[in-house]
User: Which sequence fits this backbone?
């Protein structure tokens, strides 16, 4: 079973012309971005609830809360907020989708998804270590 990140990586290997010539791949890339970004939102929400951090106001604020708790860097919180906006366009304002921008977002989007995963792994490892010491 492929993860959304693996699917996005396969779309990234296509040339712009190949990507733009295939509406099925365009739609699949958009959907994979939606699912991957939503997974980040869900993970942030679960961490905030489990740790009893302040209640966020909206999806983008989830990442601000993780920034306040020093789980994410401030600079990265801003990137994730942009990802939420991108997801909102893909999911709710689909008539505004610019497939050149979707294609251009593949390298940085994949990098940001991997970076988010690294932050979360580091947090969960330090959190688990803190629990073991109690």
Assistant:
């Amino acid at each position: 079973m492929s993860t959304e990140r693996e699917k996005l990586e396969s779309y990234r290997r296509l040339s712009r012309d190949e990507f733009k010539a295939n509406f099925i791949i365009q739609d699949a890339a958009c959907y994979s971005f939606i699912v991957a970004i939503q997974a980040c939102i869900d993970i942030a929400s679960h961490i905030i609830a489990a740790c009893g951090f302040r209640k966020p106001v909206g999806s983008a604020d989830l990442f601000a809360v993780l920034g306040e708790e020093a789980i994410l860097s401030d600079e990265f919180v801003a990137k994730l907020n942009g990802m939420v906006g991108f997801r909102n366009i893909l999911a709710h304002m689909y008539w505004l989708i610019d497939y050149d921008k979707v294609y251009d977002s593949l390298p940085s989007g994949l990098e940001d998804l991997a970076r988010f995963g690294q932050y979360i792994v580091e947090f969960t490892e330090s959190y688990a270590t803190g629990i073991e010491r109690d």
